[in-house]
């Protein structure tokens, strides 16, 4: 019971070698204030929540992400050169559970992309990068899109779904 | 592979044990007790680049808040039998294990470390149960960490963590 995850992991590893199955369950985009601006499911595997719960989840994650930047037990000595500044600590990048894996990509402007995938999914960085590319091309360059507001762009929707459908059916 | 710290939280959300292995080469802190031989670090004055370091208790509270929120989030999304195993940031990795009695074991390591869930389970079974639960002098609950930090447990934990690495 307790080690169900570990056993499943071992099985998943074997299967992964045979058929390379990749499943992306869902995508969530959180704006820099912690508001949910986009949510979509691509495959079954996660529970369906109400839109209210997704909003709560986005806010919670935003807060937890901020806390995790402060938890590092080692603090590097302050840099003596006043012209350089150390990289800011990153928050959660990957979260693993028994049923899924959450990859969080935080852009320089503070927008967070949360991608929920299978626990053993390889190359999630590349997928998130591609999604970010689509976002900058079809959301940020859309003259009718209002910053920090929910994403409702037809072109983005079409290309995102197209990209992930191909990925999930591989 | 480096283990930075280890925490146990009881079912009343209290931190009943914490242990730090990470050595602070140059403490930046000014709020904690002054260690005497620290005259090399100049006082940088009020214009501080980063906020003052948190105390160990505040750290434990933040960690509990984090794991509590994440655990609830994971249960909501992955179903009630899903459980959260670990998360990684650019600087560290946090491993989590919860017993059926809601005692939570948390370990912070460097980012290269693989899954430590079995290790946390071993700590529970072989150390916590043996030296804390079976200790006739230890209370059933551990308010304020009473009865957890006994000599045998600390010694065995130290050896175990060193042996694992």
Automatic annotation (TrEMBL), chain A:
- Provide the primary localization: endoplasmic reticulum
Example of a GO biological process term: endoplasmic reticulum to Golgi vesicle-mediated transport
State any GO CC term: endoplasmic reticulum
Keyword set for this entry? Answer: Endoplasmic reticulum, ER-Golgi transport, Golgi apparatus, Transport
Which Pfam family, an example, fits this chain? Answer: Sybindin
Q: Give the UniProt subcellular location, in the record's own words.
A: Endoplasmic reticulum; Golgi apparatus, cis-Golgi network; Golgi apparatus
What InterPro entries has UniProt attached to this entry? Longin-like_dom_sf, TRAPPC
Subunit architecture: Part of the multisubunit transport protein particle (TRAPP) complex.
> What family is this?
Belongs to the TRAPP small subunits family. TRAPPC4 subfamily.
Protein's recorded name: Trafficking protein particle complex subunit
Q: Which organism is it from?
A: Hyaloscypha hepaticicola
Automatic annotation (TrEMBL), chain B:
Compartment(s): Endoplasmic reticulum; Golgi apparatus, cis-Golgi network
Task: Return the protein name.
Answer: Trafficking protein particle complex subunit
Q: Which keywords does the record carry?
A: Endoplasmic reticulum, ER-Golgi transport, Golgi apparatus, Transport
Q: Which domain of life is it from?
A: Eukaryota
Q: Which family does it belong to?
A: Belongs to the TRAPP small subunits family. BET5 subfamily.
Q: What is its main location?
A: endoplasmic reticulum
Record SMART domains: Sybindin
Could you give a single Gene Ontology term from the biological process aspect? Answer: endoplasmic reticulum to Golgi vesicle-mediated transport
One of the record's GO cellular component terms: TRAPP complex
